[in-house]
Amino acid sequence: MAKDAIGYALTALNRLASSELLDRLGMRHTAERLAYRLTKGGFQVLTTSARAFKSTRKADRPERLSAPGTTIDLFDLNITEEQQMIRDSVRAFAGEVLREQAEQADHDQGTAEQVLSQARELGLNFFAVPEALGGAANESTTVTSMLVAEDLGWGDMGQAVAILAPMGVANALTRWGTASQQDKYLGSFAEEQAPLATIAVTEPRPLFDPMLLDTHATRDGDDWVISGEKSLVPLAAEAELFLVAAATDEGPAVFIVEGGSKGLTVGEDPAMGIRASAQRPLRLDEVRVPEQNRLGDEDFDYRAFVDLGTLAWCALAIGTAQAVLDYVIPYCNERTAFGEPISHRQAVAFMIADMAIELDAMRMLTYRAACRAEQGKPFRREAHLARTLVKDKAMKIGTDGVQLLGGHGFTKEYPVERWYRDLRAVGVAFGGLHL
């Protein structure tokens, strides 16, 4: 009842905020700020209410989460009112906080603790944890996570990766973790001070294939011993928990490795883009973990684990590419050459039109894959198609954005050069995130 009331109230407020009457009265900024604050407040009320019903017993492994209507093979682009509320709150946070801090975070090669704290206040981590373990998730949240990633990517891709990395670990533990793994690790993600956590899949070699890993895990009694090197690991130096992909005699597997484990070290190798995610190489020198720290049991699907991470990167790229498009359109309309806006030039207009077309294609393929994943249907093909298109077109949109700004696009005075560097990561990154 309370949830519906909040939803109706916020829907009415958001409609008021979009009214032209506010512009005539000069109240646009005040109304938008009120909508953001109340949306954020209402979102926190929902998550707080869910936590009040936290189970007092040790939770059994939750049933596999699935969305309503999974028996119908439909591709529905509509989102629920609750998802729209989440998007409104996240987009406001992305615009007011991430955009403002983006240049400094890129320079510092890390996301400020204040920003991470503000992100936690949104309560997004609660939607990665089932209600039985203190969270607010009562169905599969693949599509919701994708929408959140897209909106955060629109704000700043680097900081978005730092914010989403712990959520990715929580999502993986929710989907595949055994009862003992969830009891030990997952509940902490529903606390006010959720742990910093990350996923390590990518390795530093050309033409990396996540199905062919050089990092190896071998059995030694009741333990696994892991050795190898990972690259581009978000929050590597700060993380308290890692999900590390490694090859075993039975095939690829994922292991839960606690920060501070003997033989676990972090290197220094600043990346070209998404620098705010504090990506660093992670070295494992005979790191020993117990048998029960191998993620999941017989139902663990490593291919799906990789594909869901792929979709997260696609969603981030879509958000960042949208930021590029949103920036170059007014720039080209306002920038004049030879007495008229450069957008009047056919070559410029066609380039912007191509960017919009490519962006819509990226979004449709990614949405389709995420919808199938949420419905529990096979989505490997759809995820592969999405990544193939996104890694090509996202980088092209970044390149075209720099080209449209000319010399300005090559300077740090304008954000397009940072977006270009961030979008280059989509072609090489695996892991680090998980829908």
Overall description:
Residues 80-191 form the Acyl-CoA dehydrogenase/oxidase N-terminal domain. It holds the Pfam family Acyl-CoA_dh_N. Keywords: FAD, Flavoprotein, Oxidoreductase. Its cofactor is FAD. This is Acyl-CoA dehydrogenase. This protein is globular. The longest helix has 33 residues, at 302-334. Helix 4 packs across helix 6 and helix 11 (380-405) runs antiparallel to helix 12. 50% of the residues lie in helices and 12% in strands. The chain contains 12 helices and 9 strands. A hairpin with a 2-residue loop joins strand 4 (241-248) and strand 5 (251-258). The chain is an alpha+beta fold and 435 residues long. The protein has helices at residues 2-17, 21-25, 28-51, 81-108, 113-121, 142-155, 157-176, 179-185, 302-334, 346-374, 380-405, 416-423; strands at residues 197-200, 216-220, 223-233, 241-248, 251-258, 264-266, 280-290, 336-337, 340-341. Strands 2-3-7-6 form a 4-stranded antiparallel beta sheet, with no helix packed on it. Mean pLDDT is 85; it is low at 43-71.
